[in-house]
Amino acid sequence: MNQQPEILPDKILADNLLEAFRQLQRYLVLGLGSALFYLLLARANAAPSESAAMVALPSGLLATDPRFASTLAITLYWGAGAFATWIVSRADRIVKELKRRQPSALEALLTYPTLGTYRIHGPRLGAVLLPPILVVSAGFLYSQWKMSSQSVALTAFLIIPYLVLTVQLRVAIGGQQPDSHGD
Question: pTM, whole model, 2 decimals?
Fold first, then answer.
């Protein structure tokens, strides 16, 4: 009879935690890149132009209307923040389980170089707070956002995932604090 090798639960948890760290890094970078793209796009569209210019999207996608490009950038920004909150929640659950089962393995896993595990607060919180600052700045400085109830509601909707991330990542994943060497 063909026997399959047994997969150890601790190995699965460790692999899942590393994947959560990779996904978190991707979502944080995607959110920052999308917010920066939106800011640059809003700034470029604020200047009057003689013709309706098309915008070339990153990754070699076809050129498109600036309004569609703005919508795409905002959607990616918001989705990246929302997914990052989910990933941090998942990573926290895995950390709790590994802390109970394999604390020494967890200590090693928490050395994985990602923004979520940095012990010092600056890079971690900067990666979380910079995207909403860029988007809100672009919205009020270069776009048509005015101080109205609709703009306030839109702003709140756009920053909610990043506010949740700020609360989640006020301490590094795993709860580690800076040591005498910083990180």
Answer: 0.84
